[in-house]
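User: Hi! I have a protein structure encoded as tokens and I'd like to know what sequence might fold into it. I'm fairly new to this, so please keep things simple.
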């Protein structure tokens, strides 16, 4: 009766209900629920209903009637629970435990539905010391404890998950409205009346009462979806729980473990700091932006301070693999400019002991082996000749870890290959030139895939200490080699020619050389420092009717500009390094054999056409053939003139499409085609003309000018000529050129369509 009395006195309609939009409906529903509760609690306690349920065996009609009543009662309890938990988040569906007794009345049923959770029961049974919660919701939030709604809405489903820096408290989501207070008080009244061991509702109210001190705490829980407030201002909700909780005594068996863990988490100093940090810098996008900006500023300041205290020249060690002229000039430039102290530079001597003295004279460490240099250095520069760079890099590969910045100055060796040989792409390729020896190099660099901007900066500073450096795409490097790599040679030629002119005009040689060099130096300085266009500078010097313009006229007549342009352009041939290699290889191989050339080939072939590339190459070829420089250079050499004329003839007749016609020898029955020296007998005339055609075709297909091929060939002339002492220089050059071109063209053809060839060597 006490339960019913409490319920009746507390669960009455409020005056304020008429302000709610659906107040009539609410009134009716509540009235209905009230009547049903009284009805089912007073007149039809469950044991009666249960008996009635059993009576279905005796009277089907009577049984069906009372089963309906039981169903209605359960619906009532469910509806009432929705008053507390809201429509979306219903309490767990009531399942009658197998050995539990049926609830005696609807209030008990309601209580059971609010508090049933096996999971929570297990957790609570682990420890049972008396712990109270000393922190409100906003205090918990300040130390980084987050709130989340539980998955189920039984009052027992309260969980706390601590972690190193944060914690998460899960609470059932409840709806607070005007009926909630009556509901809670009825449940409290029920628990008090039946003296439960674990009064969950009372403990829950006390727990929430601890979390809520004022409207701020309600706001925290509301913002996290734990509370839904239909009651009015947050302060009213705070007062509701404070009022009910004030007269209640929590049971020490319930929520103890959770309260203990929360208290421990709140006392963690780390959590406090982290939560403070998070709230200060992540509370709004502006605070976060300011934090990021301040952090970036701090990092930059720290970096700047670091490099001020330890400048890059202090931290890096530089090693040269290849102690040649370039290495010496770069090392000297870096040491003498103060960029890198000499003791931080090292190298090793390969075979020439004089190089040791050269390096040690300005303080560079000379180590026993290449591997010692790599181990010692942070930046490794490969300054060996291009033909050995591959072997050297491959040999050192195990030591070339990614923490070492690798640099190559080997002419014509591509980054792709260097990276492949080294096993990583923190590689930079640099094309310097010889004036680096006097600190006036013109260098260009290109960064490999894994080389950072800082790496680029470092190399720029290093080569900047011996001149100027630019950055460019690697595909321009061939053109760069033609201009700045070979450029010094053109200028030396110009200086020499100017000096010769001076001598011819009666000047002493020494004076003429000095004047010529200083004139070139001063002019270059003017062009570089003033930034004026060279044409403008030239116009400034050439006064009308004066001697300067007369001299310029002479130069123009001689094709001075065209000659220089061609010289710079001719090296920009992509295939040049490969061709040079083959050319020298075959010429050397052929020439090192004594007597008449022993390289004999039995050829049964039809030369393939390679139409696809021919048009492009023909254009290149003819543009070169037309150049004044080449024409003049070869004017005295009959055989070269012949080759050029052949090229011209081929172009005019359109036969270039066909390719040269080499007589077809079948494998059996015909004498083999023998490549011999140009000193051939009458029976070998056909071969000689074939060579000429093949050489002509090679020049056309390769796109390399005759001049360049001859220049490359001259490198090998001296070492090979002793085999051919009977030949004049001119004949010897001719022989090498034709044989070399013949073999290369043969290979070209073979590589294009190997199936067209049948080449047994004998
Ligand atoms: N010179 C230029 O104007 C210029 C311009 C641009 C680029 N480059 C490039 O710079 C590089 C060096 O040119 P450089 O003029 O300085 O040539 P260099 O004077 O001939 O120097 C090459 C050095 O490499 C050494 N060497 C050879 N094999 C070696 C090995 N297996 N291990 C260690 N060292 C080895 C040689 O030693 P030994 O003499 O004792 O055998 C020599 O001291 C070349 O790749 C070149 O293409 C040069």
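Assistant: Happy to help. Inverse folding works backwards from shape to sequence: for each of the 762 positions I chose a residue that suits the local structure. Here it is:
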């Amino acid at each position: 009766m006490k339960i019913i009395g409490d319920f009746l006195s507390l669960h009455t309609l409020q005056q304020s209900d008429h302000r709610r939009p659906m107040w009539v409906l609410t009134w009716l529903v509540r009235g209905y629920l009230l009547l049903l509760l009284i009805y089912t609690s007073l007149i039809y306690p469950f044991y009666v209903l249960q008996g009635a349920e059993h009576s279905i065996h005796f009277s089907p009609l009577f049984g069906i009637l009372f089963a309906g009543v039981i169903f209605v009662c359960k619906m009532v309890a469910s509806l009432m629970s929705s008053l507390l938990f809201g429509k979306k988040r219903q309490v767990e569906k009531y399942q009658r435990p197998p050995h539990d007794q049926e609830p005696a009345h609807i209030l008990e049923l309601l209580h059971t539905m609010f508090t049933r959770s096996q999971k929570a029961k297990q957790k609570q049974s682990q420890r049972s010391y008396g712990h109270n919660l000393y922190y409100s919701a906003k205090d918990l939030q300040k130390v980084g404890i987050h709130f989340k709604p539980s998955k189920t809405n039984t009052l027992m489903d309260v969980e706390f998950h601590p972690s190193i820096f944060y914690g998460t408290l899960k609470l059932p989501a409840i709806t607070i409205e005007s009926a909630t207070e009556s509901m809670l008080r009825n449940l409290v009244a029920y628990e008090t009346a039946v003296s439960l061991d674990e009064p969950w509702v009372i403990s829950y109210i006390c727990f929430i009462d601890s979390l809520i001190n004022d409207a701020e705490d309600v706001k925290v829980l509301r913002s996290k979806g734990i509370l839904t407030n239909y009651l009015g201002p947050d302060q009213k909700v705070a007062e509701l729980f404070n009022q009910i909780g004030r007269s209640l005594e929590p049971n020490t068996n319930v929520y103890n473990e959770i309260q203990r863990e929360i208290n421990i988490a709140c006392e963690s100093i780390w959590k406090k700091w982290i939560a403070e940090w998070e709230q200060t810098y992540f509370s709004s996008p502006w605070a976060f932006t300011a934090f990021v900006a301040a952090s970036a500023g701090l990092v930059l300041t720290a970096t700047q301070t670091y490099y001020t205290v330890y400048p890059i020249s202090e931290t890096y060690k530089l090693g040269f693999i290849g102690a040649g002229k370039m290495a010496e000039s770069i090392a000297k430039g870096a040491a003498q400019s103060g960029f890198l102290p000499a003791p931080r530079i090292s190298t090793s001597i390969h075979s020439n002991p004089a190089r040791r003295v050269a390096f040690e004279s300005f303080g560079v460490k000379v180590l026993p082996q290449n591997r010692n240099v790599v181990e010692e250095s942070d930046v490794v520069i490969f300054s060996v000749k291009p033909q050995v760079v591959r072997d050297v890099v491959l040999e050192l590969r195990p030591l070339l870890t990614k923490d070492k910045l690798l640099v190559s100055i080997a002419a014509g060796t591509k980054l792709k290959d260097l990276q492949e040989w080294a096993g990583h792409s923190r590689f930079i390729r640099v094309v310097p030139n010889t004036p680096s020896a006097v600190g006036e190099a013109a260098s260009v660099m290109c960064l490999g895939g894994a080389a950072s901007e800082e790496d680029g900066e470092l190399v720029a500073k290093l080569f900047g200490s011996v001149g100027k450096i630019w950055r460019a795409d690697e595909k321009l490097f061939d053109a760069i080699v033609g201009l700045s790599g070979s450029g010094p040679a053109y200028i030396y030629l110009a200086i020499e020619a100017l000096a010769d002119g001076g001598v011819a005009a009666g000047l002493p040689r020494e004076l003429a050389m000095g004047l010529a060099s200083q004139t070139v130096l001063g002019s270059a300085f003017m062009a570089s420092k003033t930034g004026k266009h060279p044409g403008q500078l030239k116009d400034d010097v050439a006064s009308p009717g004066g001697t300067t313009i007369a001299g310029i006229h002479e130069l123009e007549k001689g094709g001075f500009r065209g000659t220089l342009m061609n010289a710079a352009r001719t090296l920009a041939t992509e295939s040049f390094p490969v061709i040079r290699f083959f050319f020298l290889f075959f010429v050397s191989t052929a020439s090192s054999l004594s007597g008449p050339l022993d390289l004999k080939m039995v050829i049964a072939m039809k030369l393939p056409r390679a139409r696809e590339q021919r048009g492009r190459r023909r254009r290149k070829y003819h543009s070169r053939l037309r150049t004044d420089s080449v024409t003049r250079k070869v004017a005295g050499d009959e055989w070269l003139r012949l080759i050029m004329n052949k090229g011209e003839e081929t172009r005019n007749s359109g036969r270039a499409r066909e390719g040269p016609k080499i007589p077809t020898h079948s494998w059996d029955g015909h004498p083999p085609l023998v490549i011999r020296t140009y000193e051939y007998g009458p029976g070998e005339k056909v071969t000689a003309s074939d060579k000429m055609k093949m050489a002509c075709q090679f020049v056309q297909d390769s796109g390399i000018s005759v001049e360049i091929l001859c220049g490359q060939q001259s490198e090998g002339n001296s070492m090979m000529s002793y085999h051919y002492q009977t030949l004049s220089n001119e004949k010897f050059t001719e022989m090498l050129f034709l044989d070399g071109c013949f073999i290369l063209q043969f290979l070209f053809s073979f590589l294009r369509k190997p199936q067209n060839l049948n080449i047994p060597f004998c």
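A useful reference point when you look it over: Residues 310-472 form a domain with the Rossmann fold fold (CATH 3.40.50.720). Feel free to ask if any position seems puzzling.
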